[in-house]
Amino acid sequence: MESRQRFLPKALAAELRRLPWRVLGFSLVGIAAAIWLALISWSYGDPSPSYATTSQPHNWLGHRGASVADAMMQAFGLASPFLVFPISVFGFRISGGHIPSRPRLRLAYWAAAALLVPAFFAMFPTPKTWVLDTGLGGIAGDFAAALVAKATAAISPSLLWPLFGLVLLPAGGWCLLRACGLNSKVLPAAFQLGGEAPAKGKAKAKANEEPLIDKAAAWAKRVSQQGGGALAAFAHPGDYWLARVREETPPPAPSPAPAKSPRKPAPKAVEPSPFSDWGSRPSPSLGGSETRRVDAEPDGLFEDVRIEPFFGVRRSPGSSAGATASGMSDDDSEPVSPIRRLTGKAMETALNGAHKIIETGTAAAAAVKRQKPLIYVKAANDEPALRTDDEVLEHFTSALPPLSLLSPPPVASERPGAHDPMLMQRASGLMGVLGDFGVKGKMSGIYPGPVITLFELEPARGTKSSRVVGLADDIARSMSAVSARVAVVPGRDAIGIELPNAKREMVSLRGIIESNAFQDSQAALPLALGKSIGGEPIVVDLARMPHLLIAGTTGSGKSVGINTMILSLLYRLPPSQCNFIMIDPKMLELSVYDGIPHLLAPVVTDPKKAVAALKWTVKEMNTRYEKMSKLGVRNITSYNSKVAAAQLRGQPLKRVIQTGFDPDTDEPIEEEEIFDPVPMTYIVVVIDEMADLMMVAGKDIEFAVQRLSQMARAAGIHLIMATQRPSVDVVTGTIKANFPSRISFQVTSKIDSRTIIGEQGAEQLLGAGDMLYMAAGGRIIRAHGPFVSDEEVEHVAAHLKAQGFPNYRDDILEDPDAEDEAPRKGGGGDSGDLYASAVDIVLKDRKPTTSYLQRRLGIGYNRAASLIERMEQEGIVGAPGRTGRREILIEERNRAS
């Protein structure tokens, strides 16, 4: 009667009640697996909320996987894989039909583990390969470590941290296992990996074993009668549920009470635990009526133990015989604990997998791409492969220099983390020094770097920043530092105090070129500027600057910085894309590059020839603008793209021009102009010492530099100028106005610092490559330039010279306006034809002025002035009067006679 009143069969109703939990369990398992996959393929360079980039993600799960992995690594660091483990265990338990008990307690244990496990990793020093700003334990680990350091400030760090680690490791592991569902009664025995349990625990397990086995036997019989249980539901869901509706299984008979004498040995059970070895699990048999007794999990092992696991697995007689033959006799009445198996082989496998996740993620973020030599071959139809003996024999194949020519970066010591006890002690001492001078506030951040450490101070309300900035020398003296730089942090209510480290790391050029910042850079003219305060590589684009002004005293690293910039371009661009004009009045720094294929002229050491080279550059700029105007483009990039497209099509470029008007119809006459342009290369003009050139020809140099800095950007011509005397007579207002990007190495005074970057601070630098870089927007960044030795520069230059000879332009160093040193009366100083033409013009037009003669003959002012002076010496014109006018002394007819 009772069965007629029930709407659904009892078994079906039970399965429907467990179905939402099973769906939730499988969802949690899927989420945990997705997080693990995201962590395995995590890369620091992937786009994420903390790192904006336009590159495609390398993460296996795309943008979402990169964001999840970055959030986990930022929050928990290396503890992230371990914290996902309880989620998967919880999902497995629910998917097996085990309705969880006390989920809030599990969540509380997981939250405690999320703080203790990262704190354990945070106690280790941060290795040099760690790419995140936080420690090894992420934000949570740094937070816990800071709390402990603050609470135990009086204890020595050498004694505190080992004790702290001994407490964190078992506490974090305990919380993790409790979050997985382990009962506290059997947790100590679970750590005995395959060993014997204590006597009391073993007796208690045997006492609780009898009813569990009886219940398991009843469950196995019901599973057998239903044709394989829930596993059959997955294999044949329609048949399984139809059978459950048609015929309801009667409840199993209760098992007899256990006798005091030893009971009959039961067959060896198949563990339904989700942690068992899947490779050794027998194939499930979904048919048949033979029932095998299944041992359930021991009572008290998991907090939410149920007797109906999800996977109902039955063995065939063959598999049972195999198990007996292999030594698994039926006399083994004690069931194998799933947690014991988990903490044995499966736990070891899980931990090894977690370590692989960590190693894979770290290696993927720290790995750099080795640049392969790119071969650039000049087309055979551009120029003949063979030339005559009097022409330069040029090698048309050139390869970029290999990185092996540069010294490998030295193995640096591990950099301390932000919560290192020594840094915390130094920050406390700095706050005491500031308090002595009446400055109040709090320390908001510590950022250690390879050369200096930045301490961010949030001053109290009403504190003037200029007052704190003025205390730089006093802070350096009180902190026993070589120097200290104090500046306002842009965009934040903080003041940065930069103090040098006790041990300075060397920044290697090869390390920057090998970095992803340089290899993945889309810059047209990339410059390896150095490393930031935090140790990240800084790569800038000279094409966007578009010119660079450098200042620094002797020994500040200015010349080494110029060499690193030149090498950055040589390692990226072949001669077919970038050429150099190098001006070195000191005849020391840039002479090593003389003869490389990238040069358009030999290294210029004569200041007068330097003026000619700059004038040629101005002329080349105007010529390029004329070519670009014919194609209707605005910059060198568009020009080269249009020329490359025309060469790809194999057709010359055409344009229609107007040549005049028809006299009969007054209609414009148009002609088609056909021309075949060639791509333009970038031209970088490097001037090592500007002060020497300004002393020789200040006006000419300033005029040429002004023209180039104002107009040469679109033509692909860029300037790099350096000086060791940044005074106002060298770095004039005109030059400063056209050089928005500047670099200041160490200078001697605050006045020089204000001249080059507009504010003080450069006088507080450490030298040897320490610099302040001011970008075009006026933002100042402190960087540490890489070091490159003279031997490395010579090796790279020798490699490039072996690739081919330079194709010099003879007209670069020829100045048509140059005057002779000692003009002679007989016409030896000037050309006879030019002098005769000048005399005829003066006698005919009756205008003996230098400017008029300059305009008529199309010569320079110096040449025209020398011609007038020669006429005065020969008695053709007189000396200038008080008004500057000259009198013609002979008539034209006398000249003709």
Automatic annotation (TrEMBL):
Bias kind Pro residues: ranges: 250-259
Q: Which CDD domains match?
A: TrwB_TraG_TraD_VirD4
- Mind telling me which SUPFAM superfamilies this protein's record contains? P-loop containing nucleoside triphosphate hydrolases, Winged helix' DNA-binding domain
Give UniProt keywords alphabetically: ATP-binding, Cell cycle, Cell division, Cell membrane, Chromosome partition, DNA-binding, Membrane, Nucleotide-binding, Transmembrane, Transmembrane helix
Say where the protein is mainly found: membrane
State which residue ranges cross the membrane.
21-44, 71-95, 107-124, 130-148, 160-179
Q: Name one GO biological process term.
A: chromosome segregation
Compositionally skewed regions (Low complexity) per UniProt? 316-328
Gene Ontology annotations for the cellular component aspect, listed alphabetically: plasma membrane
Highest taxon of the source?
Bacteria
Q: How does it sit in the membrane?
A: Multi-pass membrane protein
Q: Which PANTHER family match?
A: DNA TRANSLOCASE FTSK, SPORULATION PROTEIN RELATED
Protein name, as recorded: DNA translocase FtsK
